[in-house]
Design goal:
Strand content: 15-25%
Radius of gyration: 20 Å
Shape: globular
Family: Belongs to the aspartate-semialdehyde dehydrogenase family.
Distance between the termini: 14 Å
Strand order of the largest sheet: 5-2-1-6-7-8
Function: Catalyzes the NADPH-dependent formation of L-aspartate-semialdehyde (L-ASA) by the reductive dephosphorylation of L-aspartyl-4-phosphate.
Organism: Phenylobacterium zucineum (strain HLK1)
Enzyme class: oxidoreductase
CATH class of the largest domain: Alpha Beta
CATH superfamily of the largest domain: Dihydrodipicolinate Reductase, domain 2
Binding site for NADP(+): 11-14, 39-40, 160-161, 315
Number of domains: 2
C-alpha cells in the first residue's frame, strides 16, 4: 500500500522536479495530487506517464493525504504549512520559512537523519537552502573525522535558483546580446548574461546578504554551531547547477589523501579528482544527477590543518526537490508517516 502524496507548487521548477523524482525513485505513491494557486487550476503536470490536473490549494482537503511536499514562497508556507500539518499529513517544506524554527527539524538525510524523529512537534520538516544542502553533505564526514574550525565559501549559483524568471532572463539576455542588445534586467539587479553578480537576496546591516546568512545559520543547526563560516554568494550565467569553492581549517591534521578517501566513502557524494585538464566536475555534468560532487581536493599550506575543494550539485535536485523526496523516503523507512484509512 502506497501513500497519498500532494505536491504544492506543482507548476514551478522545483515542484515539477519533485514529481519527476517521486516517480524516478519509485517512492510508494498510492495517489498523487498536484496542488497550485487558483490561476493554475486545471493546468496539466506530468507524473510518470500520467498527466495530472492541478487542484486549487484553497479548496483541497489535506486531511486525505499522508505526505505534502511544499515548493512555495516563505510567506505562503508560513500561512499554510501549520494548517496542513494540523490536518494530519507531514509537511516537507522547501522554503526558508521554517528552517530556523527550534521545533522544526532542518534535514539533509546524509547529515542529520535522526532529527526526523522529532518532526511530530509541528508536523513540518524544513529543507535547507540549495547552497547549504550540497555544502553540508561534503562537510559532515570531514567534520566527524577532524572537527572543522572555520570554513570560507564562495558560491557560483545558477539562475535556476531564482526560478523560471531567472532562467528566462538569462536566455533572453544571451540572445539579445547578439541581436539588438540585452534587454534590461528585471529579475536580477544587473545583467546576468556574460556577467557575474556578487549579490543574492537582500543586504543586511553587516554587509552580508540574507542568502549568505542562511548558509552559516543552517550549517550551525545541522552540523555544529561552533563552526566559523563566512560566505560570498555569487550568481553566475549558468542555467542549472550550483558550484562552491570551499576552504576549510580543521582542529586536527587531515591531509588531502585521507580527505579524498573519507569523501569517497561518504553517502551522497562522488569524488571526481584527477590532476588533468578534465579531471573535475562542472555544473553542466552535474545537471540531472543525484549526488553531490567533490573535486580539486588539495592541502592549503597557508593555515595549519587546511584543505580546499570544489563542490558541485544540481540545485533543483539535491538542493531542493531530491532532498525533499529523500526526507520522505527517510520517514517511510522509519515508519514515521501516519497513513489515513481509505474511506
Amino acid at each position: 500500500m502506497g501513500y497519498r502524496v500532494a505536491v504544492v507548487g506543482a507548476t514551478g521548477n522545483v515542484g515539477r522536479e519533485m514529481l519527476n523524482i517521486l516517480e524516478e525513485v519509485k517512492f510508494p505513491v498510492e495517489k498523487i495530487h498536484a496542488i497550485a494557486s487558483r490561476k493554475s487550476i486545471g493546468q496539466l503536470v506530468s507524473f510518470g506517464d500520467q498527466n495530472i490536473a492541478c487542484e486549487d490549494v484553497e479548496q483541497f482537503d489535506f486531511s486525505k493525504v499522508d505526505v505534502v511536499l511544499m515548493s512555495v514562497s516563505g510567506s505562503f508556507s508560513k500561512e499554510w504549512s501549520p494548517k496542513i500539518g494540523a490536518a494530519g499529513p507531514i509537511v516537507i517544506d522547501n522554503s526558508s520559512a521554517w528552517r530556523m524554527d527550534p521545533d522544526v527539524p532542518l534535514i539533509v538525510p546524509e547529515v542529520n537523519p535522526d532529527d526526523v524523529e522529532w518532526a511530530n512537534r509541528k508536523n513540518i520538516i524544513a529543507n535547507p537552502n540549495c547552497s547549504t544542502a550540497q555544502l553540508v553533505v561534503a562537510l559532515k564526514p570531514l567534520h566527524d573525522r577532524a572537527k572543522i574550525k572555520r570554513v570560507v565559501v564562495a558560491t557560483y549559483q545558477s539562475v535556476s535558483g531564482a526560478g523560471k524568471e531567472g532562467m528566462d532572463e538569462l536566455w533572453d539576455q544571451t540572445k539579445g546580446v547578439f541581436v539588438l542588445g540585452a534587454p534590461e534586467p528585471k529579475k536580477f539587479p544587473k545583467q546576468i548574461a556574460f556577467n557575474v553578480i556578487p549579490f543574492i537576496g537582500a543586504f543586511r546591516d553587516d554587509g552580508y546578504t540574507d542568502e549568505e546568512a542562511k548558509m552559516w545559520d543552517e550549517t550551525h543547526k545541522m552540523i555544529d554551531p561552533a563552526i566559523k563560516l563566512t560566505v560570498t554568494c555569487v550568481r553566475v550565467p549558468v542555467m542549472v547547477g550550483h558550484s562552491e569553492a570551499v576552504n576549510i581549517e580543521f582542529e586536527s591534521p587531515l591531509d588531502e589523501d585521507e580527505a579524498r578517501e573519507i569523501l569517497r566513502e561518504a553517502p551522497g557524494l562522488i569524488v571526481i579528482d584527477k590532476r588533468e585538464p578534465t579531471g573535475y566536475i562542472t555544473p553542466k555534468e552535474a545537471q540531472g544527477e543525484f549526488p553531490v560532487f567533490v573535486s580539486r581536493i588539495r592541502n592549503d599550506p597557508t593555515v595549519e590543518n587546511g584543505l580546499s575543494m570544489w563542490v558541485v550539485a544540481d540545485n533543483l535536485r539535491k538542493g531542493a526537490a531530491l532532498n525533499a523526496v529523500q526526507i520522505a523516503e527517510l520517514l517511510h523507512q522509519r515508519g514515521l508517516i501516519r497513513q489515513k484509512a481509505i474511506a
